[in-house]
Amino acid sequence: MNRTASEIRRQFIDFFVQRCGHTFVPSSPVVPHDDPTLMFTNAGMNQFKPLFLGTADPSSEFGRMKRAANSQKCIRAGGKHNDLDDVGKDTYHHTFFEMLGNWSFGDYFKKEAIGWAWELLTKVWGIDASRLHATYFQGDAAEGLEPDTEARDLWIAVPGMDKSRVHPGNKKDNFWEMGDTGPCGPCSEIHIDLTPDKSGGKLVNAGDARVMEIWNLVFIQFKRGGSGKLTPLPAKHVDTGMGFERVTSVLQGKKSNYDTDVFTPIFAAIQKVTGAGDYRGTLPGKAAPDKQQLLDISYRVIADHVRCLTFALTDGATPSNEGRGYVLRRILRRAFRYGWQYLGMHKPFICEIVPAVVETMGEAFPELRGNPNHVAEVIRDEEESFGRTLERGIALFEEAATFAKTHHHGRIKGEDAFKLHDTYGFPIDLTQIMAEEKAMTVDVAEYERLMEQAREKARGSAGGAVDILPGGPLPDWAATDDAPKHAGQAIDAVLAGWVHDGRFANSGRVPEGAHVGLFFGQTAFYAEQGGQVGDAGEIEGPGGVFVVEDTKRRGDSVVHVGRVLHGHLNAGEKVRLKVGEQRVPTMQNHTLTHVLNWALREVLGDHVQQKGSLVDPDKTRFDYSHQAPLSEDEVKRIEALVNEQIHADLAVNAKEVPQKDALKINGLRAVFGEKYPDVVRVVSIGPTIDELLGDPGNPMWRKYSIEFCGGTHLKRTGEGRRFRVIEESAVAKGIRRVVGVTDERAERAEELATQLTSKIDAMQKLEGAVLVEQFGAVSTAIDSEPLPVLEKSRLRQALASLQERVRSEQKQQAKAGTADVVARADQLLAKAERLGLHAVIVGGLGSATVDQMRSALDSLRTRAGSAAVFLAAENDGKVVLLAGMTPDLVQKGLKAGDLIKEVAPVVGGRGGGKPDIAQGGGTDAAKIPEALEQAARLLRGKLGA
Fold it and tell me: What is the DSSP letter of 248?
């Protein structure tokens, strides 16, 4: 019986639910938000830990559960369980996988677990019993543990199991422990012998893929105490785990997990999105991998990684620079690099494969269908970000590799690996993979030394200080009074000194043409803190001007980072500090961020807590706790409340007060988890601080925004002029993000929405190519321009009304395009070069689609008799190449795939395929004539011979 993967999953669950009386428990999230000890859910038992540990509420339905079964989503990438480095190199390692499992919580034990496992494998799934081997724990004298003869005897007694296929195993392979302390016990593994003659008994637990484990039955009967001593548990449990992808490959008769229908739909999507050559399942050897091996590795890596990313992001993870977020970022960048270098994808593409994962897995895991567009957008953003530095990073790697070959015995310097990480975002494992592809290594020890050095520097720079500062304390003369930042945007001060190249100086002339940090006794510049960006501006001295690019804080000092623009500045000179004009829009955004925070609570409820913010001259970005997206009505109400406060022109009051007094104010908001000093600055929009302190418990204060804040603000809300929400999205599970704009940017967003509305109205009268072109332009503008979210929604609805007309016009254009391609093909056939009985047909087909090119190729081969055909076209800046041979020429040794491989590099690409038809692509459309010329020359040489 040829079972699909979905049927195999369903049969496992049905067997234990219907036949064995288990409860089906849906998979827990792959991101364990409620278990800080885990980076990712890495085993099926994770969600049942309270039952194993005896901490579950016995009166709850969960606490009363005795038997359970499911397919658990798992990720093993990072931490103790990490399969990331092996993915792509073999046929069975994955970062994301499913774990089929059945559990007993103080109910049945070894006899039932072994009997049911055997029944499912041999009776339900029909696996040849003579190919199955079982292992049992052989005991451990050092631990005082006896052999698990009970499990051994149960296996020997199973009908169809010969005792020669029951093997003892050591503690490493056959004793399971949850951790250093806690529940543990012997386990019994079921292995399948895939050798042709069933001679693999000696390969059990030998790490040979020909005899592999398919199911692990863990019998939890001991508890390890803090002293390491093992004591019997009062209740015995069963925890089993079977790799879904692995057992599917066995039941479908495949040699590789990647050949099953778990992965083939995703491989098809990869090929469709990238235009890559066919997957052939090759594996790398000890030498540097060849082109086909690199292509096949790319397929496996991308398919695995897009599954991992789709599930992790769906369950609330988000890429970042630390913890599980950094693991996901490494996974994404690893996949993107393979696509860039070996599939020719120099733009986001992983995001386009997400729908295939949802389609393949959505029935078993319906949560995938919740918001796949958000998942794709997060991935797209990450791809775009890495794509901006990847090309330069690859160039640096190639330089480092060339140097390593000639000077370092093929070992890439740790300094180069660190630069790739620090400057271009290359995780070290990515650099190691690229080195392996060239049969080279990386000086990881030197890389780690430099990383630790950087970490030390970062720790010494806590509080936002810039990287030009050395570790350790700053000189006394570097201390800064920055109170004037709240009073105005210009101040006179004496240049106390500077830091340059890690060294401090308070005499002489400021270095010219270099990145320098200046210090003053007092300043009006705001140093980056609390989500507000640092100020930029100018410092004018008697003999020169210094441009401040950013302002940072280190302890009691403010560092003005920038360069001498012209002339010179000297220590001890009196200079003029002038904050740049961008301070005003930053203050507008900051003050209205406070109002936005208040409005969110008014509309959504008091559960709203600030989770992060970014205030700069362009926007306010505000993250907050809430489970659902904002509805249109909620956005309207939030915008209305903010704009009402603007129109009310409320006073913005600020004052430093004792924290203990401030905390008594009814309605005061602070960032959860943030540590505040004993004296805090309170910013109130509306009431004065004295009014608040005079009657701190007054419930009316909840009608106003009152927060702890050290940032710069407007004097009155009316100076903000206008507020609009231009983006609303999810950041992580339970955390939403709102992006807003103020003043001129809000007005421009509204004006643009009005312009697009007019364009859509005008499009009602258009037809033909003009309609299609305008539709595309307006659609792109709606997706990419900073429009108010309410208008964006309305514009999309209005545009949708034209969708059918546009599709009809596109079909007409496609027909016209097909007719044009047919005409071009007729011309190529008429001009075909004849070499004896064979025709050589080489030419361009303009901007033909791949389908049109294939139709033309089939037509030319049919009509030409004996023919070798090579066609090229350009679509959206990408080159498509297609080659085909008639059967007689294939028999003569001409292969379309070989021709594509030889010609595709001319247009900066690659490709391949079968002997009779092959496809390639590239990025350099200007080289199409050269590619056609080379193809013709190669065909003449082969046919002329």
Answer: H
